[in-house]
User: What shape does this take?
Amino acid sequence: MRRVFTKAAGLAAVGVLAFTTAQPAQAGGLSSRPARAAAESAAYFEMTDVTRERFIVKLTEPKDIEHARELVSGETTDRPHLLTRIVKRTAPYNPRWSYHSNPDNTHFFDQAIEVCDATIPYVEEHLDEAGGAFLPGLVWCDWTSRLVRELPAP
Assistant: This one.
């Protein structure tokens, strides 16, 4: 019974996460900032995990960029792992993988539920299953993820 409760609680948490991080549909076509400003304020970081594979993450939120820079420099060890919603297509800045992280839905965490944990290559190998029982809501939280360096914008 305890195991069933744990799984149900995990799925409920992913549902809440998906609901709270969902972006509204193009409300009247208005944007809170021009596309050019968003592109100029983006920062790119290389991430790795227990597999030692490399994955490029684009960040657009100033507070997340600042936190990422503090992690890379060693100024902090708080919330070292990445939680994101994946997009099932290649990004120009991350061409090795058939998916990328949604920069608008990328955050940092210390601990997360098991249902969103997977390594970089495991996500690639099971990408067709992502969004169902595997990575519900396309939410990915590699428990062993860590940023290793900032990269210049492509």
About this structure: The CA atoms of residues 93 and 148 lie 16 Å apart. The helical segments are 2-21, 35-40, 62-73, 120-125. The longest strand covers residues 100-109.
